[in-house]
Amino acid sequence: MAYDYRTTRRQQVLTLFAVVAAGCSDGSEFEMTPGVDARRSDATAFDSTTLPPPTDGGTSSGEDGGPSRTDGSTSVPPDGAAAVENCATPFDDNGDGVANEGCVCSPGTTQMCFERTEPQFRGMCRMGTQRCMGSGEFGMWGPCERSWLPLPDFMNQCEATQRFDDTMAARVPVDIIWFIDTSGSMVEETRNLNANLNRFASTLAMSGLDYRVIMIGTRGTGSLQVCVPPPLAGAGCSDGPRFRHVNSNVASTNGLQVVVSTYPSWRDFLRPTSQKFFVAVTDDESSMPANTFHTTASGWPGFTGYVFNSIVGYESRADCPTLARRGGVYLDLTARTMGDRARVCATDWSGIFTSFAMGIVRRTTAWVLAQPARMDTIQVWIVTAAGTRTQLMMGWTYDMAANRVTVDPAVIPMGARVEIIYRPIAGSP
Ligand SMILES: [Ca+2]
Ligand SMILES: [Ca+2]
Q1: What ligand is nearest to the CA atom of residue 102?
Q2: Among 144, 292, 385, 399, which one is least packed by beta carbons within 10 Å?
Q3: Which of 398, 360, 353, 311 is nearest to 176 (CA)?
Q4: What topology does CATH give the domain 173-363?
Q5: What is the mean pLDDT of the chain?
Q6: How many helices (H) does the chain have, and how many strands (E)?
Q7: Can you give the pLDDT at residue 253?
């Protein structure tokens, strides 16, 4: 069944098109020497940056209601099909779907093969191998195995190409775990948290994010207690659809321990495919080393790419007289997960919460692929309005479990599109 992109709302921008290399034009370079991998290096060296636009509209099956080759029921010969099989090439020259049928070979030897015609070998297609079957002096070539053939679901191109504009970004769901130190020195900070958490939530909501917030800290309305008001939380410090309060005391230095020990009581509130964030709020240092926490948290399902944000002390006591200690462990975790940080001594937290929320949005701009991709084949390209194409070597990640590519919006110029080229796992052994 062909992938019918025409029926989707994305048809303006999600265009599957050919990014193809002209196949080798001279079949004579392929020798019959058994076992020689004549095309492997060529097959993987094609650089789609320099490739011409598609010229072979004829390979797009069934678009005009004409004969389709994808269902195997047609007798129309494929592109470039010859009358008879050519035993000197690795291709299926006569277009019957079998490479080198009826060709004599030396039993036990192998050679490269491709069960399509030569013009169909390009881009991310790859040769397979076939073994010479038989026991006597002469044998016949067996089936071609492990080749990467043109993709019926992608208009018979050798790679899936999907174009996206910003409006098609799938905002990845986010689960954000806050914990706040409510020891004696944190009165002002606790008040700031209670007053600003709804600002944080509304910034996420305005960006279209599907978010949940877990708050770990002593629940209540006292000066060293956390009571998040509606609409994020329910009335009277209660939970809400997007909010769960974990009523557990966090002291000066044990925040990370409390996160770990309370995990069983909030893990059911998490979504399996969400991006996970932590936010530490404390004016002290952690007694649990960064490595210990990182190893533990990374082992929880869905936490491999977690991000750690910190509202902690990183200035001197002279700069912040109320600071207990510099939060070096938290800053370490923030640096290694490329999170955001802010000064716990700041008097106005409204800007902190907005910038943290925007940072979360920035890390969750992603696109879902039509089919799961082989990680080693994914290319992310930026295409400007003027048509200039640049391959992104950094600034993107692929989450195989969720089948989505996350791209940092900071690397996408205004008006540009993202183009993702890949081989689906299916059909790419
Ligand atoms: Ca052949
Ligand atoms: Ca053939």
Answers
A1: 2
A2: 385
A3: 360
A4: Rossmann fold (3.40.50)
A5: 81
A6: 6, 18
A7: 96
**Structural domain spans, the chain:** 19-150, 163-169+366-422, 173-363
Q: How confident is the model at residue 366 (pLDDT cuts 50, 70, 90)?
A: confident
Do the beta carbons of residue 131 and residue 144 sit within 8 Å? no
Which residues crowd ion ligand 1, with CB under 5 Å?
A: 86, 89, 91, 93, 100
Ligand 2 mean position to 93 CA, how many Å? 5
Task: Give distance in angstroms: CA of 100 to centre of ligand 2.
Answer: 5
Question: What digits encode the pLDDT tens for the residues 16-38?
Answer: 222 222 233 333 333 332 332 33
- The Cα–Cα gap between 161 and 422 comes to 7
Which residue do the tokens 């290399």 mark? Answer: 21
> Which residue type occupies 96?
D
* Structure confidence at residue 204 as a pLDDT band (50, 70, 90): confident
The number of C-alpha atoms within 13 Å of 31 and in the hemisphere containing its C-beta is 6
- The whole-number average pLDDT for the span 337-362 is 89
Q: Which residues contact 19 (CB under 8 A, 6 or more apart)?
A: 48, 51, 54, 123, 157, 159, 161, 421
Distance from Cα 49 to the centre of ligand 1, integer Å: 29
404 and 367 in contact (C-beta within 8 Å)? yes
Convert the pLDDT of each residue in 180-196 to its tens digit: 999 888 888 998 898 89
Give residue 65 CA to ligand 2 midpoint distance, Å: 26
Residue 404 pLDDT grade (very low, low, confident, very high; cuts 50, 70, 90): confident
What distance in Å separates the CA atoms of residue 262 and residue 210, rounded to the nearest whole number? 23
Bridge partners for 91 per DSSP: 114
The 10s digit of each residue's pLDDT in 276-318 is 999 999 999 999 999 999 999 999 998 988 999 999 998 777 7
CA of 58 from ligand 2 middle (Å) equals 20
